[in-house]
Amino acid sequence: MKIRRVTSQKYLNFCNKKAEKEEEEENKTIGIEAKSFENVDDIMSCIPIEQIEKLNGQPCLFLDEASQSGNKLLAQYEMESGLILSLDRLIQINVRDVHGDLTEVGLKPWYSIDKAKIKVEERCGIPRELQMLTYEEEELDDTMTLGDSEELFGSLWNLRWNCGGGVWSFFWPSYDGSGCSENTGGKKWPREIKDFHGYL
Fold first, then answer.
1. Residue 175 and residue 99: Cα distance in Å, rounded?
2. 119 in helix, strand or coil?
3. Could you tell me if 84 and 35 are in contact, meaning their C-beta atoms sit under 8 angstroms apart?
4. Most buried of 66, 82, 114, 146, CB within 10 angstroms?
5. What angle do CA 95, 187, 100 make, to 5 degrees?
């Protein structure tokens, strides 16, 4: 497969229209002041359904970038009253590594593609240099956000992860390590990374 980087005028036009639209719209992310005696499920149940529907996806509460869930009291997570939790959409992908282990990686719509790669590297140990996100065999620019990609190309289901010649669904990427050594440009990875990808 020959990979080409997306540099189309279509994307530039999209960015210009998006900038104009953002000037007209208010930020849809809402902040919720939490009490230490509350749990995440209770807080979620108090959010108006209209706010949740605006997310157009799986709603989730975040403290900074960490997603929060469950029925434990916030105090049990050592969270004090007065903390602000943000309601946002959770994009979850399930990465299967070379050993066959499945790891859930939580992403946000405003993450850039580069940041999504970094999150996969942090959670699964796969160097971001070996990850490539494509649309119709064209490599997407790392500065694009996942939300931009979804709006521009119709759905994140239309995107594909490419690594070592293999192509996988955006939501279920898999890495078997085959052929990865051909795409490293002669770079020397630490031994544990080489072992991980099976190309020592």
1. 9
2. helix
3. no
4. 146
5. 20
Q: How many residues does the chain have?
A: 200
Model confidence, pTM: 0.68
Beta bridge partners of 68: 61
Token couple for 119: 């999150």
> How far, in Å, are 79, 86, 87, 109, 124 from residue 63 at the CA level?
10, 7, 9, 16, 22
Q: Give dist(CA 168, CA 173) in Å, integer.
A: 5
Contacts of 74 (CB under 8 A, 6+ apart): 34, 35, 36, 37, 38, 39, 40, 83
Q: Give the best-scoring range by mean pLDDT among 43-57, 119-133, 156-170, 183-197.
A: 119-133
Alpha carbon separation from 158 to 37, 40, 146, 169 (Å, rounded): 42, 32, 12, 8
